[in-house]
Amino acid sequence: MSDFKKLIITAAICGAEVMKEQDPYLPTTPEELSDEAKRCFDAGARIVHLHVRDEKGNPTQDAEIFKKTVAMIRKKAPELIVQVSTGGATWMKPEERLQSLESNPDMATLSTGTSNFGSDIFMNTKDMILKFAEKITEKNIMPEFECFEAGHVSFANWLVKKGYINRKHYHYDFVIGVPGAMEASLETICHMKNMIPDEATWCVAGIGRHELNMAAIAIAAGGHVRVGMEDNIYISKGVLAKSNAELVERVVAIAKNLNREIATAEEIKELFGLS
């Protein structure tokens, strides 16, 4: 396990599935997303995981919208590490999904396998993954391995072993609790974290009602945490979160009770080779 002890919090502030009709507090415009990113940074998040929406509030990977949003985030929260999604939405083609890389982010997700995603299939074939890895490497962007299944961890390890990804540091995100994919449980976290290289770091994104419990387990076990309205829109049962910052603050409170200090952006950039 990596000897980096401080907690890294990622805020997934929008996603591609939740709509304003489900949560009126969901940020969707570049202005709202950048304001929300700043609030999350002030609350303790150091990485923002970014999806964007079009003028009608629908998911898009449009390069120009990503560029505008990333620029606004960097103006309002210059220390914040910007991680864009290359997953987009389940129905998007690879070329569309890759447009987010044109915004010159610090990091980008690299989904390392196909999985069930509710009633849909999130398609990531070997050829697609290799293409995404090539584009991310060309632009000198740090990938976050996005793993919905244990086999995705194995394939991420293979990418490193074969030299398709060659970085100073590797960071894995276990997205668990998606209907139809890997269950959210202590056993899942233990299994997946034991598969990664000793020097790598790992993060847990618990979906829906699993967000808080999985975050607490990850913090206690020395891992890191992703929270936000992409994954869960409730602050408590039946009560909508009014901002992503509320979800970040809840994790910070758990970390303080467990004596996990929150990492600074500078420390994370040094660890990830982003400085």
Give the low-pLDDT segments: none
The radius of gyration over CA amounts to 17 Å
Structural class: alpha/beta
Note the run of SSEs as H and E: EHEEEHEHEEEHEHEHEHEEEHH
Per DSSP E runs of 2 or more residues, the count of β-strands stands at 14
In the CATH hierarchy, what is the superfamily? Aldolase class I
Beta-strand content estimate: 15-25%
Largest sheet: 8 strands, parallel, barrel
How does the overall form come out from the CA principal axes? globular
Q: Average pLDDT, to the nearest integer?
A: 97
**CATH architecture annotation name:** Alpha-Beta Barrel
CATH class: Alpha Beta
- Main-sheet strand order equals 1-2-5-6-9-10-11-12
Tally of helical runs: 9
As for the CATH topology, it is TIM Barrel
Give the termini separation. 23 Å
List the helices and strands and how they pair.
Layout lengths: L8 E4 L17 H14 L3 E4 L1 E2 L5 E2 L2 H14 L4 E4 L9 H4 L9 E5 L3 E3 L2 E3 L3 H13 L3 E6 L2 H12 L9 E6 L9 H8 L7 E6 L4 H10 L3 E4 L6 E3 L2 E2 L3 H14 L7 H8 L3
Parallel strand pairs: 1-2, 1-12, 2-5, 5-6, 6-9, 9-10, 10-11, 11-12
Antiparallel strand pairs: 3-4, 7-8, 13-14
